[in-house]
Amino acid sequence: MPIYEYKCKSCRHITTHLVQGYVAPVDLSCEQCGSGDLKRIISKTNYHVSSSDRVSSYDPKARRSDDFYKDSRNIGLHAEHMLEKAGVKPTEEFTSKLEKLRTDPGSVIKDSDG
Ligand SMILES: [Zn+2]
To answer: Which residues constitute the domain of residue 9?
Structure first.
């Protein structure tokens, strides 16, 4: 799913929206000041950023919006980042489990039960 970023013309806060399909989201408003006067900007963290770039550019100290947590691609990003920082290559098992968590969380829960 593509991610679109909108910059609020009032307070310059950037709101990120995950867009389902090709339908442009309606009634968007700034999550900070509530203004509806938003301008779409080219996302820095767009859909085409590779996952290794996401890991490298991940900042553990940065403040996160709710959207960060709603984006399933960010699941395990912290762990990946810490491994990379420590120079540890993630194991095959770790990577495949993470991939499952990101794409089909239900299956991981089922796997753990079995
Ligand atoms: Zn605003």
So the answer is: 3-41
